[in-house]
Amino acid sequence: MPKWRNYLLRSSRNKPNSSQLEGALTMSEPVKNTHSVAVGYLLWIFGFLGAHRFYYGKPVTGALWFGTLGLLGVGWLIDVFLIPSMDAKADRKYVQGPLDYNLVWAALTFFGVFGVHRFIMGKWLSGIVYFFTFGLFFFGILYDFFTLNDQIDTYNRKSSFERVGPTGTSLRPQV
Hints:
This protein is mainly α. 69% of the residues lie in helices and 0% in strands.
């Protein structure tokens, strides 16, 4: 038997069959969906101001879009095709947890001057300050547009690490 035939036979034995592949796919980690494509497209409508880029965790290009009106509309039009990939990257980057990214972003976008997003995150003192100062005279809202994804991610990571069991004992791994 020629050597190349032995190689082909040997390599075909090591390949997983379709049932093994299906099992691997079903046993894999569930897909997390921290950000929504629908919310991304809704914010894209106002995308010439960079809202969708801030939402997907791209504050530098969000500020660039804000300052240039979506690169004079050209970048804004191209983004209609890039939103699904931006969503996938944000889903891989940020942690899912008790705080929903979509809810907090909607609160910031529509009620940020009243500090509603801060109240949702449990930041009562800054929420009250935002309420009485119109989001710290809009500078606080600008800060939150740049950092909100990281604030939510930090909260979700911390809360998933410090979960408490039904008996009131910490589920935190003992070191």
